[in-house]
Structures are given as structure tokens and as C-alpha cells.
Amino acid sequence: QISGLTGQTFLVFCTAFLLACFLLKRSKNLPPYPAGRVPVLGHLLALGRAPHLKLTAWRRQYGDVFTVRMGMKDAVVLNGYTAVKDALVDRSELFASRPPNYLFDSTFGFGKDIASVSWGTELKQRKRFATAALKKLGMKVGMGSIEEDIRQEASFLRNRIAGYKGKPIDPAHDVTVAVANIICSMVFGRRYDYEDETFRELTEAIVTVLAELGAGQIISVFPFLRFVPGVNRASLCVSAQVAKIQKVVKEEISRHREHLDRENPRDFLDFCLLELELQEKLEGLTEEHVLYISQELFFAGTDTTANTLLWSLLYMTLNPDIQNKVHEELDAVVGESLPTLSHRSQLPYVNACLQEVMRIRPVGPLAIPHATTEAVKVRGYDIPKRTQVLLNLYSLHMDPAYWPDPDRFDPERFLDAEGKVINKPESFLPFGGGGRVCLGEQLARMELFL
Ligand code: HEM
Questions:
Q1: What is the total count of domains within the chain?
Q2: Which atom from ligand 1 is nearest to the alpha carbon of 430?
């Protein structure tokens, strides 16, 4: 007997319950599964190491809306401009939450940041504050402005690469540390010498965490694996590296507290400390949030921008004719010195090349997974509340209906009949959109250009 029920009654009860669940699920019109689902793993093996490629291929077979099984959970995949724009922009609030993801959530203090927190007041307040702070920093002019910091870093990077005197190199490390240093300038108000011990530890920790967050996703699919010795390696490694990054950020917070000039905030941490003074009375932002949000700017703002720059170098190398055109435009407008933001409107071909790099190789091809905040209907399919939704941005950028011969690198796509650059064409969302749009879009665009 189980708590007064006979084993037989218990069995009947369970069967009825499972049948009710099954019928309830069947009564809904859920998006279809592609073929190739296997027990336990679902579609994980079929998706492989570059899931956006497989999902874009499945779009041709299964349409704009389908479901993939990721271990024990389903994720609805939206493809193509109409479906993705509908979810990201037109009905943003219905799709703007985040699903639980153990490794990601534990890295960000289970929602103490911006990217992992669920949709709601906390996210809106944090994002509003952080966006305003970045905007104010972006508007500063002269010494200590973001533009000057980026130009200075670009100059260091240029000298470093010139120092190799034409020998073959892999530029990945130099580009990554330069980009990380820009985040240091913006968040801490200081850049580091590339050989500085703290800076080396910081950049190594950022790169390691980003790699492990990808490699350790199996823990997010099967969270119980974090208790299994050996398999939990990624999780342990991430915690150790995050502790190192947080040590540096905490020291910077103390240094900023000592030297805070309330009339003249110089960097992101200064803006945070001022906001803390305001919000402590309202129980809003705490120092822990500042820690996680600052750390997030390093994670979200390093690999993304650095990889886009690396793709740019590769496409320039592979397309010498296009490289020559870029050079001619730069020589005519800027000459030998480094460009400033005021040159932007005079360099349409350069800007078109950057747009084309982000189209053909978007560094966040599936954005960050979203989750529905309510039960919604998409193209006649029912999508229950709290369903994980993957927005396949890559499928927009590779859609032949908008981009003929989409695999060809062709910056001219982004130039109008008068030769002006098209900034916001249809079927192009490298930074996402709506309530979850990338926080660093303006900063990233400045960095890529400068
Ligand atoms: C989110 C792209 C650089 C901070 C995102 C998303 C994409 C993206 C696709 C996901 C949007 C979604 O979930 O729907 C890029 C690209 C970059 C870049 C292509 C560079 C080329 C940066 C930089 C920062 C940044 C420089 C900050 C310093 C963030 C944050 C989020 C985010 C905080 C989360 C927003 C939220 O959850 O509401 N980015 N990003 N990103 N990005 Fe970026």
C-alpha cells in the first residue's frame, strides 16, 4: 500500500494522468518535429556542432516553424524574416523571456545580469539604466571618450601587427585582447598594457569561460550531469574563471568608490555607483548586480566583436578586388591616419563591407535562446507558455528571396542606387531586435568601423 491507496488504484491513477497529459498535448496543434529524433538525445546528434546550418537546411524541408528535441526538452525554431520579426519585434513581449540554462544561469548569478534574466520589470530597469549609461559614455567627446579609447586601441593593434613585419600570423589573440581592452576602458576607465599580469589573467579567463560555455552545454541539456565527476569539468572550470574575473571587477569597484566624482562620472562603473546610491533607497540595483552586469559586458562584448573583425580580415584576404576598393576609399577619404566617426558617412563601401560580413557570418546566428511569456499562436501552431524558442537569424541572412546567391560575399548588396549604404534592410538582424536587442549594438558598430 502507498499512503492508503492500493498499488492497483495507484497504477490506474497514474495511467489516467499520463493519458490526460497525452490527450491535452495532442489536442494542441504543436509545430512538427523533423525526422531523425532518437531516444534521450532527441535531435542533438543531428544538430551537430553548427546547429544553425542544420536548422536552416531543415527550414527548406519543414517550413518556418518546427520543433527540435534537445535532450529531454523541446525548442520551437522560428526561421525566415516574417516569423522571426513577428516574434522579435512585432510581438516582442510574448517571446522575450529566457529559458533555464544551468551553465549560463550559474555564470550570471541566476539572473543577476541582463542576458539571462527573465522578461519583466527587473530586466527593463537594468537594461534602461545600462543603455542610458552606454549612450552617455558614447556621447562624450575628446579625451576619455569611447571614440578616443577605441582609436587609441586600434592604433596599438596596428603597431603590434606592423611589428610582425609581414610574417604570417594568426591575428586572433591580438584582435581579442584589443577588443577586451576597449571594454576595460569603457567599464573601468583604464586600458592595460598587453603584458600586464592582471590583464593577461582577465583575458585568458574571458576566453576560457566563453569556450567552456559552448563545450559544456551538455550540462544545460542534462543538468544532473553537473554532479558527475569528470563530466562536470566545464562547470567547475567556468566557476573558477568567473571567480578570477569577479576579483578584478570587485577591486575596480572599490577603487571607483574611493575616487567617485559625482559631477563627472567617467566610466560605466562610475555610472553604476551613482545609480546604486539612487536605487539603494528603492531596493533596485545592488552591488552584486553591478558585478554580474560588468562581467557580462566582457563576455558579450569580446568574442562577438573580435570574431566579426576576424571574419572581416578573412573576407578581405579572400577577395583582393574588394580589399583594393576598401583601400582606395580609405586612401581618398582618410589618408594615412586612423579614421574618426565623422568619416562614417563618407565611407559607404567600407560600411557596406562590414554589413556584408555580419550578414554572411553573424556571430550570434541563433541569438540567445528566448522563451514565451504567454501561450501564443504562430502560423496556426500552438506554442505553450515558457516554451524555449530559437530564433534562427542565420536563416534570414541566407534567404535567397532577399539575398540572391547568399553564399557569395558581395558588399554591393548594401549599397543603394546612389551608392549610399543601406543600414536597415529587410531580412538582416545581426543584433536581434525588440525587447532583447543587443545592448552593445552601437558600441560594436563603432568598434568595427574604427
Ligand atoms: C545580446 C549580437 C556585441 C552586449 C545579443 C544578441 C545578439 C547579439 C544576436 C541576442 C539578442 C537576442 O537574444 O534576441 C552581437 C553582435 C555583436 C555584439 C553581432 C558584435 C559584432 C556586443 C557588445 C556588448 C553586447 C559589444 C556589450 C558591451 C549584449 C548583451 C545582450 C546581447 C548584454 C543581452 C541583451 C538581453 O538579453 O536583453 N548580442 N552583440 N553585445 N548583447 Fe550583443
A1: 2
A2: 19
